[in-house]
Amino acid sequence: MSKTLELIFENMEGRAVRLTLESPVEPADPVLISQVMDEIIAKNVFDSSGGDLVRKRGARIVDRYVEEIELMS
User: Fold this and answer.
1) Please, how many CA atoms are within 13 Å of residue 10, restricted to the half-sphere of its CB?
2) What InterPro entries does the record point to (predicted)?
């Protein structure tokens, strides 16, 4: 199993931009996450093809389970 924290922003063109962080601390702290996202926007830390990040859209923890299938030769 693999968990990630997705920070979802909106750029100047109105498109969603996702920043993904592996192995998030749980339980997630919504206040801290919101503060960090505000700081990312204020400091213009990341660039996107649609311009600067201008607004928070949301955040979520994504839990992914992958099961390998052994193929017969």
Assistant:
1) 8
2) DUF2922 (IPR021321)
Q: Are strands 2-11 and 16-22 parallel, antiparallel or unpaired?
A: antiparallel
State the CB neighbour count (10 A cutoff) for residue 29: 11
d(CA 11, CA 51): 6
Supply the pTM of this predicted model: 0.86
Q: Note the pLDDT tens digit of each residue in 6-65.
A: 999 999 999 999 999 999 999 999 999 999 999 999 999 898 999 999 999 999 999 998
Q: What is d(CA 68, CA 5) in angstroms, rounded to the nearest whole number?
A: 23
